[in-house]
Amino acid sequence: MIKLLYFASLREALGAAGESLELPAGVASVGALRAHLAARGGAWEVFATSKSLRAAVNQAMAGAEARVAPGDEVAFFPPVTGG
Amino acid sequence: MIKLLYFASLREALGAAGESLELPAGVASVGALRAHLAARGGAWEVFATSKSLRAAVNQAMAGAEARVAPGDEVAFFPPVTGG
Amino acid sequence: MAISVQEADFDCGAEIAALSAADDGAGAVASFVGLVRGENIRAMTLEHYPAMTEKALADIVAQAEQRWQLRRVRVIHRVGRLLPGERIVFVGVSSSHRHDAFAACEFIMDYLKTRAPFWKKEETAAGAHWVDARESDDAAALRWESGR
Amino acid sequence: MAISVQEADFDCGAEIAALSAADDGAGAVASFVGLVRGENIRAMTLEHYPAMTEKALADIVAQAEQRWQLRRVRVIHRVGRLLPGERIVFVGVSSSHRHDAFAACEFIMDYLKTRAPFWKKEETAAGAHWVDARESDDAAALRWESGR
Q1: How much is the pLDDT for C148?
Q2: Cβ neighbourhood burial of B52 (10 Å; 0-12, 13-18, 19+)
């Protein structure tokens, strides 16, 4: 299982703040996880279409190639706008 | 007459905070005024020997070529060290 | 370094004083305060990623401490709903050297703007919307990569 | 712009608050505080050229206002005898733009250090001496000429 979190406009677009997910076979990177989520269709296609979506693995910014393994916390969010 | 002012280490070296001076004939610039003061000898030679001495005419920084005329306030001081 | 993420307001004067208190070498304190601009905004709500926020800020501060000679660093970022004119963020840096304090303070703000997980939602007369990230903020952060 | 040359201490929190008070566009306030370092110093006396000081500071602030988009600028410089840890100078700048506030604040400090008629005399265990001007301050001010 991994823990998924969604923030800000992404959270609102998906209608969910997060979920627990059993990592499917073959999904071991942020990029593969995005493809898996996009395949749900509808609002979830944003994981395939958005170029600006950011990811963090275990609370550290992570690119598409970053490893994802059971027990990880993976967050997706739009570019940050604090300060 | 001009008003002369001396500040900080220069004031202490000369033992004077300022004076009123009748501008001698031919003294019409900061540079000429420095030469005139240096000619007093002793501590006043600093006006000839110091490369770092600064001048202001009527409260504005002024170089050696700056004009000096009767009624002006001319100040001499070391490089500033505030802030 | 001291980092706070909080709903409560903060006291700039007290924070600045604390940055140099009982430190003979702290001759320079640079600080920055970011406020909610009110031109077309009724209110602003700041969301963040609690588990990551302080970690991200601590990483930014650690980078600043590697690049410049700093004595103390203080970062405060508010979350929740804020009204125009309210303070959002405080960054303060003390150093023996004026330029180090200035550079580190601006670096921390530029990195915070592009790397710390905060998101702003504005309430305007036309409704609420999430604030878009600005290219100028990305450019400001990138400046530090090339060593300007 | 508001410029003060005074013996009295000042309140950084109040000064920073005043820079953005009742101004919807002031989203950024950068400020700097310079303090008496105490490593080998018992006290410091600041002399100035009263007739020129405020004029010189106003000229520096006017230059900053021409170079950057600023909303308000505040400069306070103390004179007289100060002890280690005491505040000497405050420069605060508000702007709509973070970088303008930072740049103008540092510019004003760099120019103040090299162009405003203040002189420091330090009291140490070995006696009192006038502080020498530093080449690094001249270099800091010159940076702004070439547009870095």
Answers
A1: 47
A2: exposed
**Cβ-defined contact of D49 to B82 (cutoff 8 Å):** no
pLDDT in tens, A18-52: 999 999 999 999 999 999 999 999 999 999 999 99
**Given the structure tokens 């923030």, which residue do they identify?**
A7
Handedness of CA C141, C100, D67, C86 (dihedral sign): positive
Q: Are strands C2-6 and C72-78 parallel, antiparallel or unpaired?
A: parallel
CB proximity list for C20: less than 8 A, separation 6 or greater: C26, C29, C71, C72, C94, D33, D35, D85
Chain A contact for C52 (CB, 8 A cutoff): yes
Judged by average pLDDT, the poorest of A26-35, C87-96, C136-145 is: C136-145
ipTM of the complex: 0.94
- CA angle at D51 for the pair B71 and D15, rounded to the nearest 5°: 160
Alpha-carbon A22 to chain mean position = 14
Q: Residues with Cβ < 8 Å from D34, sequence gap 6 or more?
A: B83, C27, C28, C29, C98, D87, D88, D89, D90, D109
User: Searching chain B, which residue's CA lies closest to the CA of residue D90?
Assistant: B83
Q: Which domains does chain C have, with CATH numbers?
A: 2-145 (3.90.1170.40)
Is the CB of D115 inside 8 Å of chain C's CB atoms?
no
pLDDT band at C146 (very low <50, low <70, confident <90, very high): confident
Q: What is the pLDDT of residues D39-73, one digit of tens each?
A: 889 999 999 999 999 999 999 999 999 999 999 99
Does B2-77 carry CATH code 3.10.20.30? yes
What's the pLDDT band for C32 if we cut at 50, 70, 90? very high
Q: What is the DSSP code (8-state) at residue C23?
A: -
Kindly list the domain boundaries of chain A, sorted by start residue. 2-77
Q: At what angle do helices C98-115 and D98-115 cross, to 10 degrees?
A: 180
Measured between beta carbons, the chain D residues lying within 8 angstroms of C29 are 32-35
Sequence-ordered alpha helix ranges (H) in D68-132: 98-115
Q: Under the phi-then-psi rule, with left for phi > 0, alpha for psi from -120 to 50, and beta for the rest, what region is D83?
A: beta
Residue B23, φ and ψ in degrees, nearest 5: -65, 120
